[in-house]
Design goal:
The protein has 121 residues and is α+β, with helices and mostly antiparallel strands. It has helices at residues 3-16, 80-90, 105-112; strands spanning 20-21, 37-38, 40-41, 56-59, 66-71, 95-100. It has a single domain, classed as Trna Endonuclease, Chain: A, domain 1 (3-Layer(aba) Sandwich). Strand 4 (56-59) and strand 5 (66-71) form a beta hairpin. The longest helix is centred in the N-terminal third of the chain and has 14 residues, at 3-16.
């Protein structure tokens, strides 16, 4: 499984487990969102970003959980810059930090709060 496909599975799992803002009431007179708004961030292009920042940041609006995840293909390891980010983030209370590979999908489901058999790696 490629890292891009794996990332799509992780994001889907996060959204299905509540890492989203619900739609706002469409009858409201204010500008509204008509659909769910995922609270999952991924830098679109890292070329101008600080090196090593984790692939995904996920926030659960109800529990307040904040998860930073570095996604790797099988057999790959975080670069020195990625490791420095991950180590620094781990020192922050209330922040969860993970390095996940496709073989970790069951653990990903558990961490994000549910199991979806459609996401079997």
């Amino acid at each position: 499984m490629s890292e891009a496909v794996f990332q799509a599975h992780v994001i889907q799992c996060a959204v299905e487990n509540g890492f989203v803002l619900p739609p706002i009431d469409p009858t409201s007179k204010k500008i509204t969102r008509r659909r769910r708004f995922p609270l999952v961030y991924h830098t679109y292009s890292s070329r101008r970003s600080v090196p090593g920042f984790p692939d995904l940041v996920m926030v659960h609006p109800e529990s307040g959980r904040t998860i930073f995840a570095e996604l790797k293909k099988e057999g790959a390891y975080p670069s020195p810059e990625q490791r420095r980010w991950l180590d620094a983030l781990k020192k922050n209370a209330g922040v969860e930090v993970y390095v996940w590979r496709p073989s970790d999908m069951e653990s990903v489901r558990e961490v994000l709060g549910g199991f979806d058999p459609r996401l079997v790696a």
